[in-house]
Amino acid sequence: MARQIFSEFLPDQPAHLNTGLVTCDGVFPIANGYAPLPQFSAPPNGTLAGPALGAAAYRVGADVFLFAATATNIYRYSTAGYTSVQSGMTTSQGIGMRFAPYNTLMLATNGTDPIKKFDPTSPAAFTNLGGTPPTARFIAVVGGFVVLGYAAGDSLRIAWSDNGIPTTWTPGTGEAGFYQMPAGGDITGIVGGEYGLIFQENRILRMVYTADDTIWQFQEIATDVGCVAPNSIATYGKTTYFLSNKGLMSTDGVSVTPIGAEKVDRTFLALLSRSYIGNMSAVVDPNNSLYIVMLPSAAPPTKAYIYNYLLGKWTTASITTQLLFSALSQGVSLEDLDALYGNLDLIPLSLDDPSFRGGYPLLLLFDGTNRIGSLSGPPMRATFTDAKTEIAQGMKARIRSVRLLSDAPAANLTIAGSNNLADTPVSTTYTVRQRSGVYKTRENWAYAQFTWEIPAGTGYSFAQGFDLDAVAGGRP
């Protein structure tokens, strides 16, 4: 009996002599196989008034604040529902609303309206930031500066506030100023932190504070690679992931590394429609070491590409979402728990459990019907398809049985066979599994391709491959 281990997902490679999988959907990579990806699950009172065009969360002391933006409003969410904290906005799908925490404030910008701030000491509403900041599509905090990109409607302009004073913007006042990009194409994103990363269509710059008259030094990281999709940018730690014209990339602020080359790039770019590039979104899930990016399509996108950045492996998933974003879990009151469980006696955790206090990293999303939620439901459907295999070289092979290496209690097996690589395969599906876990089969082909499907809602924790019992069975 031969053992076929599920290798990494390599859809860019030919189906024959591919060392990996040509389909790997509804799961995410783990060290020794694949784990199930949960379905979308929505909390009570989670339906937003319109499509989500931006969202963010931050924590101030013991309080967690979660915001979501529609075309006209910014809302604050709690388990009791949404409260409008800003109205009269003009936010477009293509640009969206971007948020950045600054000390105890949350700043928000959409490229059209004055930059807004939320102050937790006056939590009823956002107000204008103050001073004379230009409008901007992109916003980040670098050191003590608020940094804006696509400032004042200029696609090549970066502007920044005075150091430690986010309301001072007049160039030459304190350390406030601006910089006009001489080349590189439109600014497509900014990432903050100890230093700034400025993404353009064809260039990436590192923005380093000099503490002298120049204030900033702009250092080129890459001159032939940039970001073509602002909403593909997602950062965790010092690593930022993004989509370039050449494919999916990452940068640590020093160099740029391809993460999809000869794996998923050709497939992803072939399916990408630039008409819908504003509809995509991306996020890092640090709990599972994943970068998740949505394939652009008509709203809402329905296909996610998932990259485990520790293992360097990809999968896909069918996820319908208007927006993926990083958030923090909300604190939960006794009233909230009663609404969630219906009876406090049914709560599976102690009331002292720290998960009820909120503030923990969390991947959230808005589905196609404006509902906020998380990937925390039952497992979604999982599908694995390996490459076309010539089991007995130059001969047919009689396939007598197959056994899935997984703790899934149920799965369907489809074998697609042919006697020539140019022939249309003949498919047979097997659903009856013996008590030993073996699927008895009656196949006789020169080439065979195996597809396993684990139905949605099936409880399991891993899938690793399959055992194959086959013998040579004559010339094709």
Structure notes:
- Strand 15 and strand 16 (157-160) form a beta hairpin.
- With 476 residues, the protein is mainly beta.
- It is built from two helices and 39 strands.
- The protein is elongated.
- It has two domains: 2-37 and 381-472, Sandwich (Jelly Rolls); 40-332 and 339-346 and 351-378, YVTN repeat-like/Quinoprotein amine dehydrogenase (Methylamine Dehydrogenase, Chain H).
- The strands form ten sheets. The chain has a five-stranded antiparallel beta sheet, with no helix packed on it. A four-stranded antiparallel beta sheet has the order 1-39-34-37, with no helix packed on it.
Number of domains: 2
Question: How much helical structure, as a percent, in the residues?
Answer: under 10%
> In this structure, how is the largest beta sheet organized?
5 strands, antiparallel
CATH class of the largest domain: Mainly Beta
What's the quick description here?
This protein is mostly beta strands. It has 2 domains: 2-37 and 381-472, Jelly Rolls; 40-332 and 339-346 and 351-378, Methylamine Dehydrogenase, Chain H (7 Propeller). The protein has a 5-stranded antiparallel β-sheet with strand order 2-33-38-35-36, with no helix packed on it.
Outline the fold blueprint:
Layout: E1 2-5, E2 21-25, E3 27-30, E4 33-36, E5 38-41, E6 54-60, E7 63-69, E8 74-78, E9 81-86, E10 98-102, E11 105-109, E12 116-118, E13 126-128, E14 138-142, E15 145-149, E16 157-160, E17 177-180, E18 187-191, E19 196-200, E20 204-209, E21 216-222, E22 234-236, E23 239-244, E24 247-251, E25 256-258, H1 265-271, E26 282-285, E27 290-294, E28 303-308, E29 313-318, E30 323-328, H2 334-341, E31 361-366, E32 372-379, E33 382-386, E34 397-406, E35 412-418, E36 426-430, E37 438-445, E38 447-454, E39 463-472
Antiparallel strand pairs: 1-39, 2-33, 3-4, 5-32, 6-7, 7-8, 8-9, 10-11, 11-12, 12-13, 14-15, 15-16, 16-17, 18-19, 19-20, 20-21, 22-23, 23-24, 24-25, 26-27, 27-28, 28-29, 30-31, 31-32, 33-38, 34-37, 34-39, 35-36, 35-38
